[in-house]
Design brief:
Elements: H1 3-13, H2 18-36, H3 39-43, H4 46-50, E1 55-64, E2 70-81, E3 87-93, H5 99-115, E4 122-127, H6 136-150, E5 159-162, H7 169-183, H8 203-221, E6 230-233, H9 238-249, E7 253-259, E8 262-265, H10 272-283, H11 291-295, E9 300-303, E10 314-316, H12 326-334, E11 339-341, H13 350-358, E12 362-364, H14 366-369, H15 371-386, H16 392-414, H17 423-441
Parallel strand pairs: 3-4, 3-5, 6-7, 6-10, 10-11, 11-12
Antiparallel strand pairs: 1-2, 2-4, 7-8, 8-9
Bound molecules: (2Z)-2-iminopentanedioic acid.
């Protein structure tokens, strides 16, 4: 594999798609050695086929706001790879959404879904629509208009979307409701649905819970335990909430959360009331965390800053891509951080990852750490297909098993000669091998 040649060809074909090119480069660097041991991959142009999405659907989303004005947004669905199973992946509503971001997410999703052990291909969708400050009716009208553009490409064995940034249970409900009307079938296409209409117990918690189970596995591997550890979390959405909930339950102390406005430092640590308050902050639709400091004395708000300047044992980026850069990584390492687990997709920049690996800081990538979310989506699909509903205990137990299986896959391919576990390498190779073998088995098509 000639990475420089592959990358310059991709850059020429897709100029300026920086997040997509970043995600591809990371995977290529990790898999090149294994790839070179398989001349049949090269002969079948596996990598050239894998880095290109199967299909991209783009559509205009027109809706009417509360003032009666016509609004236009762009909708996308990137169906990346369905070698392993039907396309599966979330939908993101955020002003920053563009094709590069959705392609990087769809690409990552393909390997992540492979790691879950469940039969799911990779996809991602979304819109540049910003939910910030929108009324409930506006959100509903937007979701319905979005579905009008996308429904024909979906189906339980074709493509099953879910939530992501800006898309939670409410938005999934509005989209699924419209989809159901259009196809005249209640076929479960969408995960993260309400419990009354096919949703799975534990799905809202699953990304954060799964991440903490993965962190527990990593700590156990080092002969360590999570009890008493201090944790910096970024973000305050669904993922940060689930992570804070489980970390606290396991006896760790979460001392930060953050938003686009800055971060909160709460030396006393989050508790049940404070974690619930995250949901209130989110539901306000204002996308800010500053009010936390007014509500909980002893905590402090740092405007325009990121939580990575704090001395903590474990850092859990839970907000968005590239939220932790090289300087942030240096600050964390200088403060003696023991472990960094990306809960957001591609939460760390390449410079940050290099810093962690060079300093032998335990670091794990999003596609391993946050796979519990989509894994539980896979469990929701199974329940829908069987027309039944599992108990929370049953789902949680399966989630546990899947996360330790992912950890084992990382170990299989990620242990370096000095004993350092390179989780990035392990996760990328394990995910890649499964997709590559599936593609080989299905022939050149
Ligand atoms: O990034 C992700 O894995 C998700 N947003 C969840 C995808 C899913 O289909 O549950």
């Amino acid at each position: 594999m000639d990475i420089n040649k592959l990358m310059s060809e991709l850059e020429a074909k897709h100029p300026g798609e920086k997040e997509y090119l970043q995600a591809v480069r990371e995977v290529l660097l990790c898999v090149q050695d294994v790839y070179n041991q398989h001349p049949e991959f090269e002969r079948n142009k596996i990598i050239e086929r894998m880095v290109e999405p199967d299909r991209i659907v783009t559509f205009r989303v027109t809706w009417i706001d509360d003032k009666g004005e016509v609004q236009n947004n762009i909708g996308y669905r990137v169906q990346f790879n369905n070698a392993i199973g039907p396309y599966k992946g979330g939908i993101r509503f955020h002003a920053s959404v563009n094709l590069s971001i959705l392609k990087f997410l769809g690409f990552e999703q393909t390997f992540k879904n492979a790691l879950t052990t469940l039969p799911m291909g990779g996809a991602k969708g979304g819109s540049d629509f910003s939910p910030r400050g929108k009324s409930d009716r506006e959100i509903m009208r937007f979701c319905q208009a979005f579905m009008l553009g996308l429904w024909k490409n979906l189906g339980p064995d074709r493509d099953v979307p879910a939530g992501d940034i800006g898309v939670g249970g409410r938005e999934v409900g509005y989209m699924y409701g419209m989809y159901k009307r259009l196809v005249n079938q209640h076929d479960g296409t969408f995960t993260g649905k309400g419990l009354e209409f096919g949703g799975s117990l534990i799905r809202p918690e699953a990304t954060g819970f799964g991440a903490l189970y993965f962190v527990q596995s990593m700590l156990k591997e080092k002969g360590d335990d999570i009890k008493g550890k201090t944790i910096a979390i970024s973000g305050f959405g669904n993922v940060a909430w689930g992570a804070a909930l489980k970390a606290t339950e396991l006896g760790a102390k979460v001392v930060t959360i953050s938003g686009p406005d800055g971060y909160i430092y709460d030396p006393a640590g989050l508790d049940a009331e404070k974690i619930n308050y995250m949901l209130e902050l989110r539901a306000s639709g204002n996308d800010v965390v500053a009010p936390y400091a007014d509500k909980f004395p002893g905590s402090e708000f740092f405007a325009g800053k990121k939580p990575w300047e704090r001395k903590v044992d474990i850092a859990l980026p839970c907000a968005t891509q590239n939220e932790l850069n090289g300087d942030d990584a240096k600050a964390l390492v200088a403060n003696g951080v023991e472990m960094v687990a990306e809960v957001s997709n591609m939460g760390c920049t390449p410079e940050a990852i290099d810093t962690f690996i060079a300093s032998r800081t335990t670091y794990a990538p999003g596609k391993a750490v946050n796979a519990g979310g989509v894994a539980t989506s896979g469990l929701e699909m199974s329940q829908n297909a069987m027309h039944l509903q599992w108990s929370a205990e049953e789902v949680d137990q399966k989630l546990h098993t899947i996360m330790s299986d992912i950890h084992a896959q990382c170990l299989k391919y990620g242990v370096e000669s000095d004993g350092y576990i390179n989780y990035m390498k392990g996760a990328n190779i394990a995910g890649f091998m499964k997709v590559a073998h599936a593609m080989m088995g299905e022939g050149v098509c």
